[in-house]
Amino acid sequence: MMNHPLLDQLQKLRLTGMYKALQDQMQMTDSQSMSFEERLGLMIDREITERENRRLQALLRKAKLHQQAAIEDLDRQAPRGLDSRLMAQLTSMQWCRERLNLIITGPTGIGKSWIGCALGNNACRMGLSTRYFRLSRLFQALQLARADGSWSKQLRELARTDLLVIDDWGITPISDEGRRDLLEVFDDRFNIKSTLIASQLPVEHWHEYIGDSTLADAILDRLVHNSYRITLAGESMRKQHCPPDAGGGVAMSQSTKEAPQRVGKNRDQNSQ
Q1: Distance of alpha carbon 84 from alpha carbon 90, whole angstroms
Q2: What is the pLDDT of residues 108-152, one digit of tens each?
Q3: Is 10 in the same domain as 98?
């Protein structure tokens, strides 16, 4: 007689996991043989699972990742120098917890965006807030925010994001306003949050790409020197008609033989 009132109360309290678990127990003929503690434990476990799933879906919606990529789909057997040890380090997302950056460079179609989205997806699954932008879209978002008076709010939201993924770095020309915006974004995040950059342009050309020498120095100082770096190599996987999980097409230059060094030194994955 008390089951229906209990279900109503669980709904009012928005305990949807416990609500569903109790419904299941009501339909199980052997649930009466379980102790009160066992039944309550199952309801609590279901509630925790429901809340974790809702949080994950919310994080993924906010992240707006460009591709549905999961790091488990990365083909680590591709014979192009994929460093399993480094990928394991990156997949753990410890670099985010240590507020470090990651720079992925290489030719078009080689899998830079896929890896960036896969790591972004992994960050969400670990409860880290994530946002994905192509660089051109980031500039557009900041321009619109400046026009409607929400520029400061937009910067605060970017500053609070655990992992900011910026794709297609080096393709969009940077205006004076764009350079100043980038400095604001990276200055707010320096040693506080992590940024992942995916670019066709080698890092040694970034200073020239940014343009203004003074601002380029300031931007790169906040972005490059506390970063892991991965250089991809090989032909575009699009030419080989690879399936959408382009992880199988990831080609990485041979890795250094030692683990990445601590903060303040480049964590570069260089060719031997």
Answers
A1: 10
A2: 887 889 999 999 999 999 999 999 999 999 999 999 999 999 999
A3: no
